[in-house]
Amino acid sequence: xxxxxxxxxxxxxxxxxxxxxxxxxxxxxxxxxxxxxxxxxxxxxxxxxxxxxxxxxxxxxxxxxxxxxxxxxxxxxxxxxxxxxxxxxxxxxxxxxxxxxxxxxxxxxxxxxxxxxxxxxxxxxxxxxxxxxxxxxxxxxxxxxxxxxxxxxxxxxxxxxxxxxxxxxxxxxxxxxxxxxxxxxxxxxxxxxxxxxxxxxxxxxxxxxxxxxxxxxxxxxxxxxxxxxxxxxxxxxxxxxxxxxxxxxxxxxxxxxxxxxxxxxxxxxxxxxxxxxxxxxxxxxxxxxxxxxxxxxxxxxxxxxxxxxxxxxxxxxxxxxxxxxxxxxxxxxxxxxxxxxxxxxxxxxxxxxxxxxxxxxxxxxxxxxxxxxxxxxxxxxxxxxxxxxxxxxxxxxxxxxxxxxxxxxxxxxxxxxxxxxxxxxxxxxxxxxxxxxxxxxxxxxxxxxxxxxxxxxxxxxxxxxxxxxxxxxxxxxxxxxxxxxxxxxxxxxxxxxxxxxxxxxxxxxxxxxxxxxxxxxxxxxxxxxxxxxxxxxxxxxxxxxxxxxxxxxxxxxxxxxxxxxxxxxxxxxxx
Length: 575
What we know:
By secondary structure, the chain is mostly beta strands. Helix content is 9%, strand content 27%. The strands form five sheets. Strands 7, 8, 9, 10, 11, 12, 13 and 14 form an eight-stranded mixed β-sheet that branches. A seven-stranded mixed β-sheet has the order 15-19-20-22-21-23-18, with helices on one face. Strands 1-4-3-2 form a four-stranded antiparallel β-sheet, with no helix packed on it. InterPro entries: TCTN1-3, TCTN1-3_dom, TCTN1-3_N.
């Protein structure tokens, strides 16, 4: 006799499939601003008691447990906002971008921001640009997305499951395996001619991010290395894309006069179109020409005339003079996406046969009109050799005030061969991160000078004019974020003597820093700075950097324990 449970099992599966099919077709995403306005449709096992027609959305029912709360607010999340207090190009969710910035955007690099797609119901932030408005505006929508899959998270009963596991870091042993599992990458040998065909497409009356810069005949060439370290001249310079590359060029020294890439005219003769397909052209102006000799000495030319490569035979050796070694473009643009100025700086030198193949360096930078770039000493951690950022706090609760010259914010006494303190008054040396320095000078005194006057003079030499009160913890610390600044602790050592006048001997500045962040890319962070007087014979200043980083300890998350229990009749009717 056939068991009675088999027909019942078939009915349950059929009803289950019908419920899922109707739910998949009837739960589209709904745009709303209410965070709790949409409920996920419940899956009903067995025959439905509702009389609704097929394809009609099912009414939301009561939940059987707590709904998953989003870890982050997608409306405030912006994954492409990489620059602090600056607008990132094509980042529509960047709060620092204005309507003027939107005018040079081509599209939103991240159009949709969502949370975990495994939830049955989640919020999604959708960004787009309205170019029909004047000026262009950003369009923002916050919608509810319903996951049509039945295998989605509806209730939260295991909180650690909502976090991500540590990603596998590729190394020399696992790189090939990861490349096979991923999509990988391909290099197209015909990419050199693809940009020429793109320029034939009609474009708008302004440059947008990533668009090749057009010239009178094709585009502005920016040599770079593609599939190998060799220079490829058919690479276009893209608008608002700052680049700095080095590549190797194989040349025949006997034919250096006929090689265009070695001549100054190859880089200075093109004229850039003000906007795409415009008849107005901006010439490239040579701002400086520096000559490098065979022994690496540099000499700047008074004029900026274009020099041609010249082959010179020196006995058994051949030399090629006026060869371009470095090229630096500086392009100025407006907020309307127009190029209004193009400057060029060149480094030319003499090349011998021992220097072949030749290494060249190319740079291009874009500067907006009527703006001044803000240099940083690191982003975020300090970079070795860059000056320490320091400033003052006028009163408690206010921001930090810095002087415009970042090489003059935290300085020490400057040393010369004469060692004369009075001759060095006002000349200071900036404190550079990671550089331990010591300087000093000699102060010649006469017996007629009062001690207090000498003490004031020595203090002014040691401290300089306006010694700062705070030092930035990171190289990109903002002046309004006072918590990112470390106060300088002043320590004065005095000696108890009968005379009331004491002459300061030295100023010692001690900067303590630590490695902060990931083990793969640690960032240098200043945690303490102190300065004090020590009594010595010579007047001097010193700077030391102390690494106070704690040894890193690798941690691993414990694997989850699986506690699976089967119902007592799971194998019915077989057992």
